[in-house]
Specification:
globular; 18 helices; Rossmann fold; alpha/beta; GMP Synthetase, Chain A, domain 3
Amino acid sequence: MSILNLLKGKKPIPAPWKKYYTEDELNIKIPNISMYEHVRRSYLKYPKNTAIEYLGHKFTYDKFMKLIDKASISFNELGIKKGDIVTICLPNVPEALISLYALNKMGAIANMLHPLSAEEEIKQSLISTKSIYLVYFESFYNKIENIIKSTKVQKVIFVKPTDTLNIFMRIGYSITQIGKYKKPKKDKMFIKWRKFMNISRFKKMDEYKKYGCDTPAVILHSGGTSGKPKNVVLQNRSFILASMQENISLKQLKAGDCCLAIMPNFHGFGLSVLMHTPLSSGCYTILIPQFNSKKFDILFKKTRPTCVLGVPTLYEALLGCNNVKNLDLSFLKYVVSGGDILTKSLEERFNKYLAEHGSRAVITQGYGLSEGLAAVCLACDKVNKSGSVGIPLAGNYVKIIDSNTRKTLPYNEVGEIVVNTKGMMLGYLNDENETNAALQVHNDGHVWLHTGDLGYMDSDGFVFYKGRIKRMIITSGYNVYPTHVEEVIESHPAVLQCSVIGIPHPYKQEVGKAFIVLKDGYHGLFVKSDIRNYCKKNLAKYMIPYEFVFRKKLPKTKLGKVDFQKLKSDIGADDDE
């Protein structure tokens, strides 16, 4: 802790994980540059290296930067200036990143939005962020046809999935799409991507103002601790710090390696870990616009990524793929699971799968949230404990507190995870109350991000995630952590997957309800009593679910996580019945 901080009344933060880092790594310094300048450094160092791979086509850093610079000229000609907000509503296609970095170069802010959002969701996002431009997928035109005039959007730039590819790909795609979707009507408000890029022809913008790391850069979306949709404003520093931290932890990654971008660009992990980090490190990102879980093994064979990050359901899907015989995974250096609980069962089965397919990697976990720009903790290489989400990344601090008193809890005691990092959000856009609830100054003088997540820390500084506070079940005054119950049930030989929710009870307040997916060859009618007895042997009485329901599969959110809200409204009988 510096003398300056001590003079300001800030107290040193206990950090048992410091032993895993060097002093230089712990004192990480964020350069005063923008995301654009961060990637430009890679271009200057590795101009002929691949920056992006998309549908089998590779873009060098040289080509990628030229496209970014052209787009920035076009945005400039359209009147975009520092602080303006432009919504990018695209899947993982090159145009999404080209637009992001072009806007960043100009000091504008990119509002990253899910392209499959409902009409009303898109409308509310455009209104709440006061977006003046929208970069959107042409085939989804019908979603905005009726809502765009009720927003402040001045122009919509429409993208096709083949716009940055060669003419033969474009012609082939156009033929296959004839009559499949309603095309934008002729209107001065609408412009096609290629016409937008042509605005830059015969124009130059050699000189441009360079923006520092404290400039707002990106808006991501989060439910926060309250569950209400919010706009998370992140500065350039968040992405630059995350890239530097991940390079410290993922020591095996070298320039020229590649990351498989299955996670989308509107998700913190996807945009930060799988896109900006490789692009600012001389590596390249493999953009996957539409993921097919049934062909995951084919994707691995074609792309041979060095690093892959996904939610647990993606790895579960890979275990069920049998398209490629003798699949070679020796090229994998890192396999990271994030965004949801990685069960002990899946961890063991996937590590066995990796070993059987020639990989020396093991699946590890990371933890983060949009407000802290995705990655807060990470386990990798030898710094790993089974079941943990790793240690705080270099320069980050984590502690476990009692949510009511804000008192720091002892090691191995479950409480709320709070985070202190130089990469945390600037705040929620135009929402001071929610910002103040999330970012709180504690008695130690530091600002802590309250995550709304439960977990504990051991004496070595490893963090163990136990789920959302809102998922915690209080039954007859006892705290029940669904993730613990799920882990026990999933250790039963008949169970493939389990999710536990709390349901109302007349005098116990809440009781658990377990939704179970069985392995092939098992039937709920025959194993329900056995699973119940298994719980009696391995769980305290108050932890045993009140109900057991069998499903062929669990509902998922757009990001592939278990959809607990849908489970709460699921009152049906067993699928087997």
